[in-house]
């Protein structure tokens, strides 16, 4: 009997030692399995998030300048900024020239008019309402071929049914001495601008593509800030 009991104790000791030897390997295998599943789950989650972003669509990135039309025309999509109102006369630093987004005055100028002097802070508010702003810089020399050409662009724009007479559509022509050197003609809509050295038919395309493409759809006429009706 003593020998039998000793045999049983020896077998029990061997079993315990075998269990201890097995435990690290089993634990390691278990941890490896868990980690593998976690890694797989992370990959699946990342793939799902990526597909969700693609499906929802990220904001389009700024592009340009892109060569368009003749007259050295360049069109640039400008990174959108909040249309924050600042007091009239406040100096504003914009991200592009001519400006196409960002801070502006709380007052917008009357539509369908040509201005020989109009601060950018006013007409940028018009652009926020979906207007097309046509600009020119002829220095101190009269340039009827430019101003008449821009007026023809506005005349060719279709009547906006959301406007009330006498407003026909949301468009402004304005002299702008701050345009880049060498630029005679420019156009602005919210988040996009165009520059050129002369009046080019591409301006029809610009107006058609970008009219009323802005944060606020508003054709209520603006403030009387001078100017003359576009003939």
Count of all domains: 2
Instruction: Supply the helix-strand structural class.
Output: alpha+beta
Strand segment count: 8
Low-confidence stretches: 1-5, 18-59
Chain-averaged pLDDT: 83
Helix content: 25-40%
Structure write-up:
- This protein has 231 residues and is α+β, with helices and mostly antiparallel strands.
- Helix content is 37%, strand content 13%.
- It has helices at 2-56, 120-128, 144-156, 202-210; strands spanning 66-67, 74-77, 113-115, 132-136, 171-175, 185-189, 192-196, 228-229.
- It has 4 helices and 8 strands; from the N terminus they run H-E-E-E-H-E-H-E-E-E-H-E.
- The chain has 2 domains: 1-58; 66-229, no CATH class.
- The model is unreliable at 1-5 and 18-59 (pLDDT under 50).
């Amino acid at each position: 009997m003593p020998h039998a009991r000793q045999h049983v104790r020896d077998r029990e000791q061997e079993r315990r030692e075998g269990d201890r030897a097995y435990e690290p390997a089993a634990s390691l295998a278990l941890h490896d399995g868990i980690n593998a599943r976690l890694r797989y789950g992370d990959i699946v989650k990342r793939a799902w998030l990526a597909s969700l972003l693609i499906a929802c669509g990220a904001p389009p990135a700024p592009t340009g300048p892109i060569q368009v039309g003749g007259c050295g025309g360049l069109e640039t999509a400008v990174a959108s900024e909040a249309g924050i109102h600042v007091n009239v006369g406040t100096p504003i630093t914009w991200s592009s020239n001519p400006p196409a987004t960002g801070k502006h005055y709380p007052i917008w100028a009357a539509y369908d008019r040509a201005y020989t002097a109009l601060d950018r802070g006013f007409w940028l508010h018009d652009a926020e309402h979906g207007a097309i702003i046509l600009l020119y810089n002829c220095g101190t020399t009269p340039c009827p071929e430019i101003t008449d050409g821009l007026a023809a662009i506005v005349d060719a724009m279709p009547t906006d049914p959301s406007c009330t007479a006498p407003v026909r559509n949301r468009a402004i022509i304005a002299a702008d001495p701050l345009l880049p050197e060498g630029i005679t003609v420019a156009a602005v809509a919210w988040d996009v601008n165009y520059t050129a050295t002369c009046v080019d038919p591409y301006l029809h395309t610009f107006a058609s593509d970008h009219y009323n493409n802005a944060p606020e759809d508003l054709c209520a006429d603006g403030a009387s800030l001078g100017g003359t009706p576009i003939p």
